[in-house]
Amino acid sequence: MSSHRRTGTDAAPTFRSALHHRDFRLLLLGHGAGTIAQLMMMLAVGIEALARTSSSLWVSVTVALGFVPYVVFSGYAGVLADRWSRSVVLFFSFASRAACAAAVATGLLLGWPVPVLIVITAVAAVLATPSYPALAAATPECVADELLPPANALVTGVENAAWIAGPGAFGVVVLAGYGPTIATASSAALFALAALLAARVRLPRPAGGPAADGLLAELLTGLRLVAIQARIRRPMTVAVIDNFLYGYLVVALVLLAERGLGGPDAVGWLSAGLSGGALAAMAVVNRLASHRRPALVLFAVMAAFAVSVALIGLSGSLPPAVAFVTLAGAATLIAEVIAVTLLQRAAPDDVVARVFGVYDQLNVGAIAVGSLIAGPLADQLGAGTAIVVVAAGCFAASSVATATMRGRQRTARHSVEVAAPATSTVEERRSH
To answer: Hey, which of 41, 64, 157, 251 would disulfide with 374, CB 3.0 to 4.6 Å?
Structure first.
């Protein structure tokens, strides 16, 4: 048995013990580098479109086409990550996007039409969709079951950090006196680095490999599992509620700050509190996600998230709002890590990437819906009242979703055709 398949029963579940596994470490670094590169390329094309056309519409189109593929294609991307080795899928995702970024950099240098640049960027976004499902499915292959909480916390932390670092890296390039061309060339280099990291990992193809039923049938298998398997559906439902409330909160904080908490400076403090809370949660997420009654913890964390969001709407002044938003930032990260861990333990090995493809679709969609309704609700009810109403609804929905969850939700099923409940050990699961 290779080092990345050891059970780890002799070690406490810490970030260091998760990072001790070479394959996980390489894929995690690659995913982080690829996410930064994706954002740099998208922003570079958006800025170029604005500079050439003076139209904010083209900027909106660029950004929208950077996110829409996740809602549309992530399910199919999960099928690919269940057909082939997850490390191979990650390699091709990074390598193909490196080619796209190189093409965009060339187009920027040669003055290609803006629509052509946007189309290439949209293609790169489609090619990015297998990345998260493949990494989520690869994580249980790289680390032992008891190390899933710290590993998932690291994945969530790196992804959040990359989403922050992407615009920052682009800004550094611009502040250094270089334009979108150099920024896109830099993103191509980051994609290439990510591909090299993924190429050093050799995970086996999932049991079963490509099926003869066709792509749509395999996609529907993942959707059916989410729909009919309660141990999969319930944590995914909580994750969707969590991401919906997060998407709503990000926009609602801006509206609340502008309409009663002090304007742009307040937005900065509130945003810092949201990120600071998520960072602080890394200190306790392992212990909470490893609890023997994760459903109870998930209920408590979602309750804390919803209550803290409601208190933001009721606070009336900036200092308590920052305190409550910090708690909300911590709660949303912990809830996501617990939900992801439960899904990894519940999903059959040969369809876990399809489950996370559906997860990606639903959660990106939930963030988008939450963000879209924030403005209209604030106009109708007032920014503070709307926050309280949405938080109360999310609390009720998450309470229902967690009410009947039981146990650690492990599974030893290695194929969707096997209906027996979980009984095997981690070693048996790894041996397949």
So the answer is: 251
